[in-house]
Design goal:
The protein is an all-alpha fold. It has one domain: 434 Repressor (Amino-terminal Domain) (Orthogonal Bundle), CATH 1.10.260.40. About 70% of the residues lie in helices and about 0% in strands. It is built from 6 helices and no strands. Helix 4 packs across helix 5 and helix 4 crosses helix 6. The N and C termini lie far apart (about 40 Å).
Length: about 90
């Protein structure tokens, strides 16, 4: 039996505990998705962004995977390396 990713996600999110954990990680994945978009928009590889930031490709990979949350300073360096701007907004919950 084959199940699509969409179907699997729906099935897993049917579990309240899984849904809570998924929602708790949403912000981290949103940040990593924005980093990937910025790098792609700039037409750069992870290695090229790393070189511009003075760090390693594996660090960029960890940032983009959501395994680590970047500091504000790191976000600003990433933005500069990709020719992007950082916009931060806090909204009511």
């Amino acid at each position: 039996m084959t199940i699509s990713l969409k179907q699997l996600k729906a099935r897993l999110l049917g579990n309240a505990e899984v849904r809570r954990e998924y929602q708790a990680l949403a912000v981290e994945y949103e940040i990593s998705a924005e980093l990937i978009k910025a790098r792609h928009r700039a037409g750069l590889s992870q290695a090229e962004v790393a070189a511009r930031m003075g760090t390693s490709q594996s660090t960029i990979a960890r940032l983009e995977s959501g395994q680590m949350l970047p500091s504000t300073k790191t976000l600003l360096r990433f933005a500069k390396a990709t020719g992007s701007k950082v916009h931060l907004r806090l909204s009511a919950a």
